[in-house]
């Protein structure tokens, strides 16, 4: 297995030779053209249709179609001799951490298996007052939630009510925020973790979590990289997402998993019926869990079948943050101490 950048310097030529042998330059050329055409189509779609929020518009979204096809392509079988150079090139570009892999590169039969690979177990702080990072990711923002407009990234905010409910006109007023809290003399906080393509794509529980309900909100699958969300309004509010509502030892906790372009789907380990990026009958699907589902800190919650974003909102009386904006984290790192 190739596991360092110095050994990857000549991978471009290796990969090119491999691709020539596998499919020929003609297919490679048309694949590039197809990719560029898809990109132009997505750009055109968003410039013309950003304000369409009905179910039909979402079903016809170019980004949903492209992401669905990307998911299918990621499941395409790769010959064993091609896997190591192909995955090594991807890893070189996206800084994949090979040290914690359980399998050699040649054991992953397609990109989907590589993206959603399991890794070696990690130790994490089990103290109940310490919240751990749910996924290998970058910290986009963290803040106190005082109104309907928490910070998304620097100088950019998102509409919390719209984001959590799928209802554009629903506003999280200070009174509503006060009413949803489970304890007195506490505050609400938001933290956002962005998963890059090269990151480990499974997400874990930041604490013991009593899951009461979930809402699946159908939407677009626009890019969620910082450069895009900084210049394009309502990306989080209109992308497909699933919101998990519940409590933890110190009060309210919500965990929202946000889809993105080329994310084939998101999964929930405890709910095998749940599916995303599929043809939906409704724009908003709510499910109440009776009895409440008890989930343990550090347990695997599910996976992105590429990479995307985890948004958390939680209640606490006091918070000591152990992170900075833009910081790279691994799941299991402590990001906050709460009381």
From TrEMBL:
An example Gene Ontology CC term for this record: mitochondrion
Record-listed E.C. numbers: 4.1.1.65
The protein's enzyme class: lyase
Pathway participation: Lipid metabolism; Phospholipid metabolism; phosphatidylethanolamine biosynthesis
Pfam families tied to this protein: PS_Dcarbxylase
Segments crossing the lipid bilayer: 27-46
Superkingdom of origin organism: Eukaryota
Cofactor(s) essential for the protein: pyruvate
GO molecular function, one term: phosphatidylserine decarboxylase activity
UniProt KW keywords: Decarboxylase, Lipid biosynthesis, Lipid metabolism, Lyase, Membrane, Phospholipid biosynthesis, Phospholipid metabolism, Pyruvate, Transmembrane, Transmembrane helix
GO biological process, one term: phosphatidylethanolamine biosynthetic process
Signal peptide interval: none
UniProt entry tagged with the keyword Lipid metabolism: yes
PANTHER family on file: PHOSPHATIDYLSERINE DECARBOXYLASE (PTHR10067), PHOSPHATIDYLSERINE DECARBOXYLASE PROENZYME, MITOCHONDRIAL (PTHR10067:SF6)
Name of the featured protein: phosphatidylserine decarboxylase
